[in-house]
Amino acid sequence: MMEPYLLAKWLHVLSSTVLFGTGIGMAFAMVWAMRSNRAEVVAHVAAGVVVADWLFTLPSGVVQPLTGLWLVQETGRGWNEGWLLLTYAAYLLALACWLPVVVLQYRIRDLARATAPGPLPAAAVRAFRLWFVLGWPAFGALVGVFWLMIVKPDLF
Fold first, then answer.
1. How far apart are CA 19 and CA 143, in angstroms?
2. Segment 12-36, tens digit of pLDDT
3. 17 and 136 Cβ atoms separated by less than 8 Å
4. What does the alpha-carbon distance between residue 111 and residue 102 come to, in Å, rounded to a whole number?
5. Are 16 and 146 a contacting pair, CB within 8 Å?
6. What residues contact residue 40 under an 8 Å CB cut-off, 6+ apart?
7. Nearest-CA neighbor of 48 among 73, 72, 22, 21?
8. Which end of the chain has fewer surrounding CB within 10 Å, N or C?
9. Pick from 79, 27, 77, 21: which is nearest to 48 by CA?
10. Distance between CA atoms of 38 and 111, rounded to whole angstroms?
11. Maximal C-alpha separation, the chain
12. How crowded is residue 8: how many other Cβ atoms within 10 Å of its Cβ?
């Protein structure tokens, strides 16, 4: 049996890997599909991205803060250490970007399905552009969270 600290750490690292890796993989798939400008391709890929979000992103996104708080408790750290406060803020920024992205993925999928086969409608392209823009702060926030988790700087 694994001791609680190591179990929490393992689950935290595993869920962060799933969260980050799935996000990058889905972003790549969507960008690649959108480059085709073919509604049937985008509809198919976007449908998979929607499913992947519910199967991988959501569960790992829930496990992350739970195991993070568990680790804080196990290590005896203060909940309000500066690096942890920045971690919470960065995670909330990623969440604030992800929630509209989920809605946009459904919209892109549905618009592509409605016009397949054929070229994508302008509304799908606009939704994708916003989806793409929202991905960057989420990506940056999660990269920052990784850095904060490793370095644990003494901030304030």
1. 12
2. 999 999 999 999 999 999 999 999 9
3. no
4. 14
5. yes
6. 112, 116, 117, 118
7. 22
8. N
9. 27
10. 12
11. 58
12. 21
Residue carrying the six token digits 């850095």:
147
Per residue in 48-60, pLDDT (tens digit) is: 999 999 999 999 9
**Do 33 and 41 meet the contact criterion of CB atoms below 8 Å apart?**
yes
**Quick one: tokens of 113?**
């399905």
In the numeric block, which tokens belong to residue 93? 């920024």
Tell me the CA distances in angstroms from 95 to 45, 57, 58, 65, 120, one per residue in order. Answer: 22, 11, 10, 11, 28
Instruction: Provide the token pair at 69.
Output: 């708080």
pTM, 2 dp: 0.91
114 touches 42 (CB < 8 A): no
The owner of tokens 């490793």 is 150
For residue 38, give the DSSP letter.
Answer: B
Give the total residue count for the chain.
156
Residue type, 35: R
| Cβ-contact 29, 52 below 8 angstroms | no
> What tokens were used for 143?
């990269």
Q: In angstroms, what CA-CA distances link 109 with 19, 121, 149?
A: 21, 11, 35
